[in-house]
Design goal:
single chain; alpha+beta; globular; 11 helices; D-lactate dehydrogenase (cytochrome) activity; 3-stranded antiparallel beta sheet; Uridine Diphospho-n-acetylenolpyruvylglucosamine Reductase, domain 3; 317 residues
Length: 317
């Protein structure tokens, strides 16, 4: 009854002040009804009933408030995001996303990259690596994200082949230095952050189309090619790649984040449009997740496992 009364008051109010008054009136109305029902109960039972009812009302009223007055916002009582340890978070007041909103910044411990690793990376990548601060800052700061960069990578490398990626990962694994694969940097979730520094592997030089099978309607590409570039390549053949995330997104990053786009309702997400992947694991081993067969029941579906792993299981090459 109290809930129905509250909904009626909510629908009748036309502004925030009216809503606040309706909310207070309905709350006290509900509490008075609850107290009346508890007068004839033993104290222990009344105490339990009161706590359960109050818990029920505190959970349900904000839900009804969000549904009935969607133009208003309701702030969570939880001061920390779920699945994150408070000790590893730093709450900073910022103006992004609204007045006095709170941005959570992941703290990371930074350890200097050993000179031995830098020498090994120079031998692998030749001139395709940099220690320049501006370049490192650019790769450590998300271009389209509200997340803050608390650290930047110590080294940025630009491999040209999956063999080079494998050697880079092996060297980083040997020296226990973290790596962050880097594609088009269009993610808004802070995927390219380097909270612990380390080595940023920029895949944008690996952008070749290796093979096109027109009759089978599939194409083999390197991870650094963008979906818009791929569609320009496919257009003369009467083909197109159906996913359309943000401009600048690369195929490797799209696999890592399991992207979709506005056409996903008709054509599916990245998981539905990838047949096979080649991935460099954390120890530098190169694995192929499947064959070109459209349907196979041989073993685990490693392709779907890697798609959406966000760089935690390997580097898509």
């Amino acid at each position: 009854m109290g809930f129905s009364f509250w909904l009626a008051c909510l629908r009748s109010c036309s502004n925030k002040s009216a809503f606040s008054k309706a909310f207070r009136d309905s709350f006290y109305h509900y509490k008075s009804q609850l107290n009346t029902c508890q007068k004839n109960l033993p104290s222990t039972i009344a105490e339990k009933t009161n706590s359960h009812a109050f818990s029920w009302s505190s959970c349900l009223l904000p839900l009804a408030f969000a549904v009935s007055a969607g133009s208003l916002t309701f702030q969570s009582h939880n001061n920390h995001p779920s699945l994150c340890e408070p000790s590893n978070l730093d709450s900073r007041k910022v103006t992004i996303g609204g007045k006095a909103s709170t941005e959570f910044v992941v703290k990371g411990t930074h350890k200097e990259v050993p000179q031995e690793l830098i020498d090994e990376l120079k031998a692998i990548c030749q001139d395709n690596m940099t220690l320049d601060y501006d370049e490192r800052f650019y790769h450590g700061k998300p271009q389209n994200s509200f997340h803050k960069a608390v650290n930047i990578p110590d080294v940025v490398v630009f491999p040209r082949s999956e063999e080079e990626v494998s050697q880079i990962v092996k060297s980083c694994n040997k020296h226990k230095v973290p790596i962050v694969p880097y594609g088009g940097a269009t993610s808004i979730e802070g995927h390219t952050l380097s909270p612990n520094g380390g080595v940023c592997i920029d895949m944008t030089l690996m952008k070749r189309v290796k093979a096109l099978h027109i009759r089978d309607m599939d194409v083999v590409v390197e991870p650094g090619i963008g979906w818009m570039e791929l569609n320009e390549y496919l257009e003369p053949y009467g083909l197109f790649f159906p996913l359309d995330p943000g401009p600048g997104a690369t195929i490797g990053g799209m696999c890592a984040t399991r992207c979709s786009g506005s056409l996903a309702v008709r054509y599916g997400t990245m998981r539905d449009n990838v047949i096979s992947l080649k991935v460099v694991l954390a120890n530098g081993i190169i694995v192929k997740t499947a064959s070109r067969a459209r349907k196979s029941a041989a073993g685990y579906d490693l392709t779907r496992l890697m798609i959406g792993s966000e760089g935690t299981l390997g580097v898509v090459t």
